[in-house]
Amino acid sequence: MSDARGIVVAIDGPAGAGKSTVARRVAEALGYTLVDTGSLYRASALVAERAGAAVDDRAGVEAAVRTAVARGALRLDAGDAGITRVLVDGDDPGEALRTPAMSMGASAVAAYPGVREALLDAQRAFGRTGGVVLEGRDIGTVVFPTAELKVYLTASAEERARRRCDELRSKGLDADYAVTLSEVRQRDQQDAGRAIAPLREAADAVRVDSSAMEPAAVVDAIVALARARGAV
């Protein structure tokens, strides 16, 4: 899987565990390219919404996503500073992908085989040459099962709900802890219970529980693991 450019670092885990922040900082520390695969599924939910397909309409969602991928309206872009972006109709949707509705929508559409098949090649294309950090929910189990380093980054549901509330409030949005905790648990059930590529810990993954850890400590631990596995 690796070449002179480096190894593949796969970071999986439940929603709210801090994967996006940690993956970005790990990529920066290693000088690797970051691929935020979770944004692909959020963008798929957005594509379905714009096409008028409800998230529970499997055929409609799959058709919308396949069409968008085929015509290049939903794709990964190399971006700047080693961070890939997800583009929808040529634009970066930005914060439109980070709403609670898109989070739940991503979990729903990710259960559809047609959606996952349409997005799989896009994810693998960015990792074939090594020197990448990919984060999601099935990177180490499905997308890159031979990745040199697999990390399962997790935290308690309560801590993840607290972080989510803090994030929303920092943006000036209302956030109710009890409601957010319920949403986190519902998302966990959806992700772990889906028939296709469910969220699970790879047998050879290193589990990192960030519940009581500062982000910097999590990053340091994963970078050390990567370098021990041959990262340059």
Protein described:
Helices cover 48% and strands 14% of the residues. The chain has 9 helices and 7 strands, in the order βαβααββααβαβααβα. The chain has helices at residues 19-30, 38-50, 58-70, 100-109, 113-125, 139-143, 157-170, 177-193, 215-228, and strands at 8-12, 33-36, 74-77, 85-88, 132-136, 149-154, 206-209. Strand 3 and strand 4 (85-88) form a beta hairpin. Helix 1 crosses helix 9 (215-228) and helix 4 runs parallel beside helix 8. The model has no long low-confidence stretch (mean pLDDT 91).
Give the strand order, joined by hyphens, for the main sheet. Answer: 2-5-1-6-7
- CATH homology-level superfamily: P-loop containing nucleotide triphosphate hydrolases
Q: What is the ordering of alpha helices and beta strands?
A: EHEHHEEHHEHEHHEH
- Percentage beta strand: 5-15%
CATH topology: Rossmann fold
| CATH class bucket | Alpha Beta
Structural class, please? alpha/beta
Mean pLDDT: 91
**Looking at the structure, what is the overall shape?**
globular
Sequence stretches where pLDDT stays below 50 over 5 or more residues: none
Task: Briefly say what this structure is.
It contains nine helices and seven strands, in the order E-H-E-H-H-E-E-H-H-E-H-E-H-H-E-H. It is an alpha/beta fold and about 230 residues long. The chain has a single domain, classed as Rossmann fold (3-Layer(aba) Sandwich), CATH 3.40.50.
Give short descriptive properties of this protein.
Rossmann fold, alpha/beta, 9 helices, two-stranded antiparallel sheet, 232 residues, globular, five-stranded parallel beta sheet
